[in-house]
Specification:
With 467 residues, this protein is α+β, with helices and mostly antiparallel strands. Among the domains are: 253-301, no CATH class; 304-332 and 394-466, Alpha-Beta Plaits (2-Layer Sandwich). 50% of the residues lie in helices and 10% in strands. The protein contains 22 helices and seven strands. The strands form two sheets. It has a four-stranded antiparallel sheet with strand order 1-2-4-3. The longest helix is centred in the first third of the chain and has 24 residues, at 122-145.
Amino acid sequence: MEIKLLGTGTKDELEKRIQKVAVAGKLSRFSGNVFEALEASNDYENNLKMIKRIIKMGHKSIIEHDYLVFAICDVSPIIEQTIIGNRLTSFTIKSRREVDFRKVGYYIPNFRGKDGKLHKNNDDLQKQYKEHIEWLFNIYAELKDNGAPGEDARFILPYCYHSNIIMGLDARELEKMILYLTKERQSQMQELKEFGEKLYEIVQEKVPYLLETINDVKEDLSNPFEYIENLEPRPELKIIDKTKMISYTKNPDDVVLLSSIMYHYQCSLEQAEEILKKIEAKDKYAKEKMMDIILHKEERRELEQVNFTFQIPISLAILTHLTRHRMHPLLIPEFVPMWNLENYIVPPTIEAKEELKELYMQGINKNIEMFKKFKEQEVMEEDLIYFYLGAQMLNVVTSMNARSLQWICRMRCCNKAQWQIRIIAKDIANMVKDVAPLIGKGLGSTCITDKYCGEGRESCGLINKLS
């Protein structure tokens, strides 16, 4: 694992970053303008003291002006999936669809016993683990070499393979991430804690005003679900058969249209309802035309007034395709307690060829066998998470406003989108169309909704058939 803060790293760069934050802290009570505040904030030590004092009072919005970009090398998807959940952080991640992953390497944990101490058989467990993981990588290579698409062969990859990431975030999110990884339950996972500690090391030199607030926070490893678990035991984990809509805003089409009228005319709901009736009386297609305008304007805030909640069955291999859309509150189960490894998916291209499926199932079954073998030796669950494969299925819950929904469907209903996320996106679009037919007209790939394709030479060609 290697993490590097991108930039010159010079003393001058640090002082300029600190100056920006200090100006933000000074401005609200400064008698002059912002440029005069900037001129008055040229002493590094004084700037640092002021920032520390302000954020210790809880006024942390000022550190959102300090934006940092990190290069992250050789971390597992465990880290990737954990940090990408920070909704105000930006990520670019190496594609598993476009890159061959057979030689990327993988994470090797120190196996611990249930007491959290190094397992007495750690050396032997690590040897067995490495042999097994390398065998799974060979299965991946054989699948690819025998005709399985890379995007489907990756379902057999263990969740310990190395990933590379560019991560951008402001200092407030950085502080939150470090605390989450080093002082909460997630710190019991070795790799996550190591990642958080490496970020902390960088903070010591490059973001010094965060040290005091981070150090002041006490470790809390408590289980927030302990209360309900004491009242009702965990049921057997079952994966739902398809995406389901759990709830939605009542009369979503009308809510969007009325909100548009209310904010434009600055009128009450009752007045807006009367105006909408009058407009419809003059043009029976008024609602359709109004919604079409809203669906295609630059700012579509009206679409944010309605929400739709879904439960979605999805594989680990594809989870980031959903997680990366940041403007929806995705609920993903924690990695521990361990999920049922019997809940897996077989990609259609592999299912269709007997020799590929046989090879794939060898990997699935052997992995379950190895997991059980390690569990019998009472290895700590936080160290068993690397036996998850990309094929592992789980249920997630999320809510999307209609604007986020439109954007996700544009990306994920496209024929070039990965097949599982495309099925999910199309199911979501169809369910929304049933309850909000006018909003539904704006859901789908851009070739369908806008008669436009931005893929250029890489277009699937459907746009030409629709023109």
